Amino acid sequence: xxxxxxxxxxxxxxxxxxxxxxxxxxxxxxxxxxxxxxxxxxxxxxxxxxxxxxxxxxxxxxxxxxxxxxxxxxxxxxxxxxxxxxxxxxxxxxxxxxxxxxxxxxxxxxxxxxxxxxxxxxxxxxxxxxxxxxxxxxxxxxxxxxxxxxxxxxxxxxxxxxxxxxxxxxxxxxxxxxxxxxxxxxxxxxxxxxxxxxxxxxxxxxxxxxxxxxxxxxxxxxxxxxxxxxxxxxxxxxxxxxxxxxx
Length: 247
What we know:
Helices cover 55% and strands 13% of the residues. By secondary structure, the protein is an alpha/beta fold. It has a 6-stranded mixed β-sheet, with helices on both faces. A hairpin with a 2-residue loop joins strand 1 (109-111) and strand 2 (114-119). Helix 1 (2-39) packs antiparallel against helix 2 (43-65), helix 2 (43-65) packs antiparallel against helix 3 and helix 5 crosses helix 8. The termini are far apart.
């Protein structure tokens, strides 16, 4: 009889403990749901709402299927790893993809109505096609040279004239395609002539600034005049006068 009474006492204590544990779990769930509902009104709440409800409904489904009186180690009513790691990883990945899309050089960027893009010798045809299809008129192409190892302008004439050309195009709200002809050896090498020195471009030197129409046909060019300038002010004057003719 005493053993039975002891068993009944233990059973009542276990039942009371299970009931209190269940109430604590439900209280924590309600509090967390209330906080998420308040956070949903903000931008952060909108981003987390889908992930939160996914985990919350999964917890409710598991809760109705079977109840475990064991006290959870985390404050949250669902698996803490899914909240502490998965959601931030998703946010970081989404933000990284958005930043990469904005900073990609495969598409034009409109900065105060100034469209610009950089292309290499091999990608010049596709870049010119993008210039004609995506960029507004007037459209210009600047041929310059970058060192393959340092990615710096190796020609002193280009270093003097390139900033002036960019500023003139920006002031005119024009589109500018900068084409890299390669290193010094690739441009001046006597063994294998550069493809841009042959027709239809027939470049004689860099820097060369060309204006193109809607079909990609060259309608104007200034090259020797830019090379003959002795200062950045003279280069800005020559570039501004050339770009101004096609406004």
